[in-house]
Amino acid sequence: MGAGGAGLRCALELSQHNYSVAVLSKLFPVRSHTGAAQGGVGAALGNEEPDSPEWHFFDTVKGSDYLGDQDAIEIMCEDAVEAILELEHFGLPFSRTPDGKIAQRPFGGHTKNFGEAPVKRACYAADRTGHMILHTLFEQCVKNEVRFFNEFYVLDLIMDGDICQGVVAYDLATGDIHVFQAKATMLATGGHGRAFSVTSNAHTYTGDGMAICFRRGIPMEDMEFVQFHPTGMRKLGILISEAARGEGGILRNREDIENIGSGKDGFMGAIAPTVKDLAPRDVIARAMYNEIVEGRGIEGSGDTGSDYLYLDLVHLGAEIVNERLPDISHFARTYLAVEPIKEPIPVQPTTHYAMGGIPTDIEGRVLWDAKNKVVPGLYAAGEVACVSVHGANRLGTNSLLDIVVFGRRGGKDMVRYLGEAEFGRIKGEPDEFLRGEIDRLQNGGGTEKVVDLRPEMQNVMMVNSGVFRSKDSLTKARDTILELRQRYQKVGVQDKSAYFNTELVEAIELGFLLDSAWMIAESALHRTESRGAHSREDYPERDDEKWLKHTFIHYEADGKVKFAYKPVTITKFQPKPRVY
Amino acid sequence: MQVTVEIFRYDPDTDKSRFDTFVKEVDPKDRVLDVMMAIKDEDDGTIAFRKSCAHGVCGSDAMEINGLNRLACQVLVQDLKSKRIRIQPIRGMKVLRDLVVDMEPFFAGLESVKPFLIPKEPAPAAERYQSIADRAIFDDTTKCIMCGSCTTSCPSFWTNGAYVGPAAFVKAHRFIFDSRDGGNEFRLGILDDKDGLWRCHSIFNCTDACPREIHITKAIGDLKRYTVVHR
């Protein structure tokens, strides 16, 4: 389910073992959000300078603010080298070093020798690495004759007791509902960024897979951790890759305008003296927020909604900007009428990535609970899943790595499972619930409108569950979301057609997003500490004694959740203060 | 500023088409997609169009805007230099509803050119080496997002739907000129076919339409030369 990097990598693995595999996506292939990833994919190839998977392992643990599970992170960083070489063998057109190897560049939080200085670890193809991964994996799936069901929107799981037997999907073209029986099902449907008003995520990034599972009693892990990327284009939220800072870009505030083009340190120089503008995203997003609140934003009103900062690439020169950052330069010219070779780009933090999601083990198997009980036949990988390799804050380049490593591992374990699994029985009418929902939305006479509820959800989440949170703000977010969920029961759509009913689809997506928003707010309210991307103004310190653990949020009844906890797996690196 | 937006409508239930007109107050910096979403939200929820990334990388929202194929998320209202915005589906494809066309034949056409690496040699333990210069030869055509803007702007495609079309050639170019690829014997037949390269008459509509600014007519020229030499 889902035709992004994780879904395609998994499908490819299954097709290589001659299994009958179907990829269902609500989009066409290559439209998935993997294609929007820009800067690179992390792997300690050591092509540009000495590097090791162990350093990558350490950086990822530290980046996660020690919440990532170290067994999973170690596997990811070890598998990384093979997974990236394999992509090259599939034909991925990486940029090259002068001696013809895969080119690499620095990225936030990636360092040599356990934090000494930035290291070139991000393997890249200009600033369209995700695009190239998505296309290369699609090409290989075409080669292996993988069957695609394009614009089939998966809306429910089929469960036989504890075992997953497939999915129910809605065909956008015809409005038909289809039942797909499967021995093994992989959810790779991405994150929930559209629950927030400013986001780098696609309109279709609506938390579908998480909500589908949550409604079926599967808990979600670490939902309070949402990454805000420092450099979204002002107001639009469109991503300006961290590669811009990897290549030497510098963030500047109002007092720093005269240094534009000079290459001198900006405000990050004082906050993270070793890595400066290449500190991890949570650190920089907080610093930017503080710059603005303290009146050093570009307009200087201290209003986090309208003030912004500058990303200065001027000193890099035309060649680096045009050759290594061509797409983001194009975005700046198209949407902001800014020429990045000559002027700084107005930026503000943008909602970017869900660290939390469907809990899985290191083979991608979905878990029923915090005690590692497996859901037979159900897998998840990529942003929808929480292994957890990203913990409380994901490092740049580790999302593309996550999808190829865990898409592949999930596929391999599915091959193993398929060898022993039998088709079960599908009881009753698995599409009954879905037919009822669609009928309610289309013919229930509801008077509430998606267009009223959606912005209210997005704004309350952005303001109250954003870079900084507190008990008051999160209570407000949670209560508003619960009220919106009540109103959602009365939503009606104008469009009664069976064909390409995009209004109906948006209504279903809003229902899914409200589930995610609810889980985020509840989980964030519950975690009374600050860790990684979760910054509580009322609990500003990390509290390892109480909170060095994963939260599992379970659905109890409408408006009611309960929490369980899972210890963090620590193998090699004991938690330490996180200084850059 | 105020704009008048005319949107093509096609209702598959009645098999009838029309244009609907909306007058909207917009910011000149709005994307055409923003304007369409505002119309859908505020005026008529039944308008069907595809969208996803909203910044020109996913290729969902190719449509004909004031006579030219564009991504609705990549054109700002001010770029159009007109207070009248006329939006139609991309041409030469079966319209399923409003601005949504059937993309399945387009993808099938792309797949006909074997759009995947056919390695010259078995993979080594490490990566295959490729010089910066060799990588640069096909850089332009790696940018393709398969939106269909080029193929559906091509008069040769409009008159003959069997024509493989520029998007498939872009994909073919990306592999034929990749130093790691050795599969051209499988591709040349398709390119040199009567519905292949030679139906391109260098009209340049594809190059004008490409939201990724790929020099498509040049790429097709490269392929024509290659085909003649390697026949």
Question: Which short descriptors sum up this protein?
Answer:
heterodimer; A: 580 residues; alpha+beta; FAD/NAD(P)-binding domain; Methane Monooxygenase Hydroxylase, Chain G, domain 1; 3 domains; 4-stranded antiparallel β-sheet; 16 helices; B: alpha+beta; Ubiquitin-like (UB roll); Fumarate Reductase Iron-sulfur Protein, Chain B, domain 2; 2 domains; 5-stranded mixed β-sheet; two-stranded antiparallel ribbon; elongated
Characterization of this structure:
The complex is a heterodimer of chains A (580) and B (231). Chain A has 580 residues and is an alpha+beta fold. Chain A folds into three domains: 5-227 and 352-420, FAD/NAD(P)-binding domain (3-Layer(bba) Sandwich); 228-351, Flavocytochrome C3, Chain A, domain 1 (Alpha-Beta Complex), CATH 3.90.700.10; 432-540, Fumarate reductase/succinate dehydrogenase flavoprotein-like, C-terminal domain (Methane Monooxygenase Hydroxylase, Chain G, domain 1, Up-down Bundle), CATH 1.20.58.100. Chain A is built from 16 helices and 22 strands. In chain A, helix 5 crosses helix 15 and helix 13 (450-464) runs antiparallel to helix 14 (471-488). The model of chain A has no long low-confidence stretch (mean pLDDT 96). Chain B has helices at residues 32-42, 77-80, 104-112, 132-137, 155-159, 166-176, 184-191, 205-209, 216-230, and strands at 2-11, 16-25, 62-65, 68-71, 84-88, 95-97, 100-101. Chain B is built from nine helices and seven strands. Chain B is elongated. The model of chain B has no long low-confidence stretch (mean pLDDT 96). In chain B, a hairpin with a 2-residue loop joins strand 6 (95-97) and strand 7 (100-101). In chain B, the strands form two sheets. Chain B has a five-stranded mixed sheet. Chain B is an alpha+beta fold and 231 residues long. Chain B has two domains: 2-101, Ubiquitin-like (UB roll), CATH 3.10.20; 104-230, Orthogonal Bundle (Fumarate Reductase Iron-sulfur Protein, Chain B, domain 2), CATH 1.10.1060.10. The termini of chain B are far apart. In chain B, helix 6 crosses helix 9 (216-230).
